Amino acid sequence: NAAKEAQQRGWHLYLVGGAVRDLLLAPGNQTLLLQDIDLVVDGFHRAADVGAGVELASKLREIYPQVRLSVHGEFQTAALIWHKDPELGSLMIDIATARTEFYPYPAANPQVEASSIRQDLYRRDFTINALAVRLTSPKEGELLDFFGGVEDLRSHQIKVLHANSFIEDPTRIYRAVRFAVRLGFKIEPLTEEYIRYAIESGVYEKLRLENHPAPALTTRLRAELNYILEASYWKPALQLLSHLGALRPLHSQLVLTGELWWEIRCVSRWLRYLDPDHHVSHWLIRLEILIASLKTEERIKIASNLQLPKDSIERLENLDSMEKTIKSALPNCQKVSEFVLLLRQYKIQILIIVGVRSDKSIRHIIWQYLTQWSKTQALLNGNDLKAMGYKPSPKFKEILDQLLIATLDQKIETKQEAVDFVKT
Ligand code: CTP
């Protein structure tokens, strides 16, 4: 329908970006479930109206009224979102008008103008993402490969289209690493040189989160960090980022030392064991442990510039004092209940971070707490107390807490002993 509507208006419609790349990479017999589809409209031998993408999306919205339409005025793109069944997930189709982007200054947000498909593809990040398939006739189904993307897919290379690519958009460094590791590709040597040049050139002062970078840029950067640190391939990706010197744009002193590398792997092991269902955000804790290697003032600057969630910023801000309290109080605890009463004041995220940054004995106690002691429950609950004839009151909590302490310290082991304990 999208192609038909475009055709009627004398426009061309193209499938572009990641979907084309993934379709070409998929083995012939494999069905690919596309959930994120990018379409681009342009005119025959001329630029289409700037509003063509939005017009097409609005027309499709009339045909499929169940779809949600959202328009991004600034870049003249429209997104159509289908909420399909829970198994298949949702489908998102972005429709943009072919455009040329100008970067008024390095690392700025691009300014946009309508143009042809070739120019639209030229503004993209890598050759493998600058392929298009024409969906309208004539030549419907034709693959447009102006920049050697197919050959790079064959030879497994991540290659930029021009030397300024990383200067214009610093988040592309993170994308290069993400695609390289995810697809098992190599960053082409000249592209790697451009990355190193961009980092060395100091243009990243703009991005560097010690300063005050453009909010849109940091949002994109946070999204890339989220992708990388959440992915199953986060370890090789982080190593590659470090190898390229690409942690420096985050902070000039951020270096993946052997110690930090150990800590972040340890955090991940703990998270895998303690939180297999991802109740907490694993990528964020990995990012926090990286940021925690810096001084407190620097941590806060990075975390707030990256617009991390409030609780994450608070953790990084208060880490030193919480760490100090925990590390000085733990050696004075003797009974299990004393450890529990101290550690239960802290959320799992902070205990994991403090745990992996501590010496072996403290790490061991925090691990014991997280894996065993924190799961111990009093042998009776409020209903049991009611059944014993007590009227519910604030005292219940105190009694149950005393019961828990006695249970933790193995003074009582059976329900009958618990009942006797309450009576006395
Ligand atoms: N793009 C770009 N520069 C960026 C981000 C995106 O040139 N900094 C272009 C690329 O052509 C990319 C397309 O926009 O293919 C869509 O971006 P996105 O959805 O982020 O990436 P995909 O290639 O679709 O990859 P993924 O499969 O990870 O979603």
Structure, explained:
- With 424 residues, the protein is of the alpha+beta class.
- Helices cover 50% and strands 12% of the residues.
- It is built from 20 helices and 11 strands.
- The protein has helices spanning 2-8, 18-25, 52-63, 117-122, 149-154, 165-168, 171-183, 189-201, 215-230, 234-243, 258-274, 282-291, 296-305, 310-329, 336-343, 348-356, 360-371, 382-387, 395-408, 415-423, and strands at residues 11-16, 36-43, 68-72, 77-82, 91-97, 99-102, 111-114, 132-134, 143-144, 157-158, 186-187.
- The strands form 3 sheets. Strands 3-4-5-2-1-8-9 form a 7-stranded mixed beta sheet.
- A hairpin with an 8-residue loop joins strand 4 and strand 5 (91-97).
- Helix 7 (171-183) packs across helix 10 (234-243), helix 9 (215-230) crosses helix 12 (282-291) and helix 16 (348-356) runs antiparallel to helix 17.
- The longest helix is centred in the C-terminal third of the chain and has 20 residues, at 310-329.
- The protein is elongated, with a radius of gyration of 28 Å.
- The termini are far apart.
- The model has no long low-confidence stretch (mean pLDDT 88).
- Bound molecules: cytidine-5'-triphosphate.
- Cytidine-5'-triphosphate (CTP) is lined by residues 17-18, 36, 38, 124-125, 129, 169, 171-172, 175.
* Unreliable parts: none
Mean pLDDT: 88
Looking at the structure, what is the overall shape? elongated
Content-based structural category: alpha+beta
Number of strands: 11
